[in-house]
Design brief:
Elements: E1 17-19, E2 25-27, H1 31-49, H2 56-77, H3 86-101, H4 116-139, H5 146-168, H6 184-191
Antiparallel strand pairs: 1-2
Length: about 190
């Protein structure tokens, strides 16, 4: 892996390029840099989510996800390198199964709302989807392993499920619920 940062304001990016982990320089608007930036933004949003009250198991899971996203960012910063392992995708699959099992089945679409923690999880979900799209776009130009795309796809699903978990978690011990979409079409069909 490339050298660790010892200085932040290097001024080497003033010309619109940035250095990758293999010491090559690319335009800051390259698809690789977009993907790296979206993964970084996702990780930062998870950091904000971690400031909220949540079950300890969810907190532990999110911290592990932050580490895996750092691996993913490192992998994206070094063309041809692998840091994110397929086992990380399996861990998300296991977390999805565990948390989905504890939730009631959805009968209707839900809004990205509810508690502050759940709403932040929905923001993370949407940023994960954008990061996934950026990785797919990069795959159109360069060969990448499947794991980054798969990880982001599973993670966006998991963030949806965790938003539902967080809407049910209350500090006072009461149980909350999702915020359901009021579909006029469905309401009309139900009244007929």
């Amino acid at each position: 892996m490339g050298q660790r940062l010892t200085q932040i304001a290097t001024r080497t990016g003033d010309n619109g390029t940035t250095g990758l982990g293999d010491n090559t320089r690319v335009s800051k608007d390259s698809l690789r840099v977009h993907a790296m930036g979206d993964v970084d933004e996702l990780n930062s949003n998870i950091g904000v989510l971690l400031c909220e009250d949540m079950p300890e198991g969810v907190r532990t899971l999110l911290v592990e996800i932050q580490h895996q996203l750092f691996n993913l960012g490192g992998e994206l910063s070094i063309p041809g390198f692998e840091l994110l392992k397929p086992e990380a995708v399996l861990a998300l699959d296991e977390a999805l199964a565990e948390h989905n099992e504890a939730l009631p089945r959805l009968q209707e679409f839900i809004l990205p709302a509810g508690t502050r923690a759940a709403s932040l999880a929905h923001v993370c979900r949407t940023v994960a989807r954008r990061a996934e799209r950026a990785v797919v776009a990069l795959e159109g130009q360069e060969e990448l392993k499947d794991t980054p795309r798969q990880y982001l796809n599973r993670l966006s699903d998991l963030m949806f499920v965790l938003a539902r978990v967080l809407n049910r978690h209350r500090q006072d011990g009461s149980v909350g619920d999702d915020v359901y979409w009021r579909s006029e079409r469905l309401a009309q069909a139900a009244s007929e």
